[in-house]
Amino acid sequence: MSTTVDWSDLPPELLQIIATNLQTLRDYIRFRAVCQNWRSAASLNPRHLPLEFPWLMLPLSRSSNRRCFFNPLTKSLHRLTLPEASHSRRRAGSSFGWLVLIDETPSIFLINPLTRDKITLPPLSSFPNVTKFDFYSIGREYTVRSPENGIYFCNLREMRDSFIKKVILSHSPSDKSSFFALAILNRHENLAYCKNGHDSWKIIDQARSFSEDVIYFRDAFYAVDKFGSIAICKVNDGDMPVVNFINVGQQIGGDMQYLVDAMGDLLLVSRYLDFEIDIEHYLEVCNTVKFQVFRFDWNAQKWESMASLDDKVLFLGENSSLALPVSDYPGCKGNRIYFTDDYSGANYDGMAGDHDVGVYNLADGSIETLSCSPRNAHWPIWIAPTLC
């Protein structure tokens, strides 16, 4: 007579042995998804697993609750159930493996795509320049004060898509300690911040126009303007952040600027774009043509051009910029910049189209297009996968 085995009742010691012998993050996620007992036996911090190369998040279809993640190093696809990242919500950044999502309602929240842990941030209606939110004022739900102290109105979708450019975090939410979130505001070119657990955002008035990019570096938020000058913002629980400036006094070219913490070096990456008009879809189409990389010289207080990234690779886009050593990723080639389209109108308002996603070789200026991004894809964004 055959007997039925209840696999959920395997001894915890045996489950732990099995978990520690799994060799890929993908298998580890599947193991934890079996049942509560298996999940409890598998640590959220599996140090035995190799470091995972950043993934590119793409949706599968407009109606799907699942999201597709592409690993450009292994050319593998990972499909995860993630209804929280539906098409009614806009992604507005990723930091430490957590996505920032904005709803058509005022809500803003963080989510770890692998664990689906969720953390709420203060809503859109809590920004100081949002003077009123009325869900029943159809088409004029938000009343916003302009930088010139005028008033304008935004509907739900406009506010979701255009009010915030990008949100980055100071620390990983998984560290069980406090962290700050900083938002770059699109139209206002302001910076705003909040602490987790607080109920509103605060504007950093002194740092207006430093809205090209922001990273957290040396215990402060570093923000850069179009010309390469830097605002260093030390935020705290009080009302007055401390802001210092570095005016580099040199002309930095490019159409977009990114800041990167490259193992303790502060890098500035300038992105050059070629603009065309897509007559069929009435869109301005932008394509990346080259990058320039600079390292900040703290003694001379200026940017110095870099001919090579040596054994590093960079990840740029709507994510918090990343620099990684190729020695941690067998098969990875150094001196490359992995980039996504984080400027095109095709990312917003439900539009779809070709995306400017690829790998730039700093040695010869060549660009390899990533074939994972089909024409009907939305929302390309890098995320560093982590269970914690």
Automatic annotation (TrEMBL):
Top-rank lineage group of the source organism: Eukaryota
Span of domain F-box: 10-51
InterPro entries: F-box-like_dom_sf (IPR036047), F-box_BR-signaling (IPR050942), F-box_dom (IPR001810), KIB1-4_b-propeller (IPR005174)
SMART domains found in the cross-reference section: FBOX (SM00256)
Gene3D superfamilies: 1.20.1280.50
PANTHER family per the UniProt record, alphabetical: OS06G0707300 PROTEIN, OS07G0183000 PROTEIN-RELATED
Protein's UniProt name: F-box domain-containing protein
